[in-house]
Amino acid sequence: MLEPWVNQAAGLQALALQHAPRLVAVASHGQQTGELPLLWGLCASWSDLGQSVLVLDAHAPESADNPGLAQWLNNPLQRAGDEDPLIWQVLPAARGLQRVHDLPMLEQTLSHLFKPWDIVLIYAPASHLLRVLAGSGLSPLIVVPPALPCAVSAYAALKLLLQGRLHPSVVNLVPEPLMQSGVALTASAYHLQQCAASFLGYHVHTRTVVATSQPVQAREDLQHLALDLFENALSLEQPRRSERVH
Length: 246
What we know:
The protein is of the alpha/beta class. The protein has a single domain, classed as P-loop containing nucleotide triphosphate hydrolases (Rossmann fold, 3-Layer(aba) Sandwich), CATH 3.40.50. It is 48% helix and 17% strand. The strands form two sheets. Strands 3-2-4-1-8 form a five-stranded mixed beta sheet. The relative contact order is 0.19.
């Protein structure tokens, strides 16, 4: 059972040897209580494989006491000279990401800032990701916690991302007691699927992650998800032209 995991991990490490920063995105939709534990679990999984991770947090504003992406943009040469990044770093990025208007700017202007890291994760509202990543082909992650109101906010995020031809990956976060009772799809994820099919004509494929007190099981779920996200990440090495969204 562990063989596919070992093979995937070897593939990730081989890709990382090319050392092109790879971009992953998590689309927030007002449900940080469920999103943050999964996000940190992903970062821990990548770190366990020796990958350095930079999280650009659009929910945290930069300041003089808490500098972040905005300061890096103001002084890129100093940032580019740092070749020894922390294995896992969270950077305030609310103001800095507001200055990034589209994908070419993200790739052409910021790739040298991100070069020391193996993985760059943007954690931002769907509207931010739509502006920066539209037409990129990246598949942002939407986390759907079990609380039923989460289906409404997740649907709004999904609808917005689809406008930019961004086809999100959806994580169905299932509490351990439900999984043990044979319920593999929460009510919130089910309603998201139904609404997307009825109103958008879009089939939502969900990926189940168990919210469990057993760290081994939770880590295995997250490891496989982390590998899939890495393999489908957007390389920041070669700038590309973004499609225009009408």
